[in-house]
């Protein structure tokens, strides 16, 4: 395989399986990134992507299906109150229950065995993410991208 094909293959594998524990961003349309303050029960919101902003860096731990905040030891992306349409996304102490088991796919971030997707209700800075039934809309077009520290 030539170098370009290897690089393309590696990028596709990263997006589908996610890295073992590499820091990355979750980026959506309109240059919006998944962002949270590093404190338990903080809202997960959309902010303009900034690769130097530690509040936008996440680690995908494939063995546990967790999205952990890189800047806050022990905080994971969580759906408050369990898995239900329009459930609010927050950060919370990692506990491994179903409302913290995420998968990063090529064009979406989903939970609940792929039934619900991370969803941005409006393309406005500060909008809180929620989950909704996966439907392939632009509001759910998010991708995990590894970044260098």
Task: Walk me through this protein's architecture.
With 149 residues, the chain is mainly β. The chain has one domain: Trefoil (Acidic Fibroblast Growth Factor, subunit A), CATH 2.80.10. 10% of the residues lie in helices and 34% in strands. It contains 1 helix and 12 strands; from the N terminus they run αββββββββββββ. The radius of gyration is 14 Å and the shape is globular. The N terminus is likely disordered.
Structural class: mainly beta
Average per-residue pLDDT, rounded, comes to: 85
Global Rg: 14 Å
Across the major sheet, the strand order is 5-4-1-12
Question: What is the general shape?
Answer: globular
SSE order in H/E notation? Answer: HEEEEEEEEEEEE
CATH class: Mainly Beta
Assign a percent range to the helix content.
Answer: 10-25%
CATH topology: Trefoil (Acidic Fibroblast Growth Factor, subunit A)
Q: What is the terminal separation in angstroms? A: 29 Å
**Strand share of the residues?**
25-35%
Please tally the β strands and state the result. 12
Regions with little confidence, pLDDT below 50 for 5+ residues = 1-20
How many discrete structural domains? 1
CATH architecture: Trefoil
Determine the number of helices (DSSP H or I, runs of at least 4 residues).
1
Task: Please summarize the sheet with the most strands.
Answer: 4 strands, antiparallel
């Amino acid at each position: 395989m030539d170098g370009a094909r290897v690089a393309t293959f590696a990028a596709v594998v990263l997006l589908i399986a996610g890295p073992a524990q590499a820091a990355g961003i979750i980026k959506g349309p309109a240059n919006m990134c998944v962002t949270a303050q590093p404190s338990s029960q903080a809202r997960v919101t959309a902010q303009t992507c900034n690769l130097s902003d530690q509040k936008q860096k996440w680690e995908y731990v494939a063995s546990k299906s967790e999205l952990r905040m890189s800047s806050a030891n022990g905080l994971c992306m969580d759906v408050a109150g369990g898995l239900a349409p329009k459930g609010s996304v927050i950060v919370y102490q990692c506990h491994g229950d179903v409302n913290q088991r995420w998968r990063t796919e090529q064009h979406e971030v989903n939970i609940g065995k792929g039934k619900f997707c991370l969803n941005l209700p409006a393309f406005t800075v500060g909008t809180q993410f929620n989950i909704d039934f996966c439907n392939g809309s632009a509001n759910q077009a998010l991708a995990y991208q590894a970044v260098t520290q």
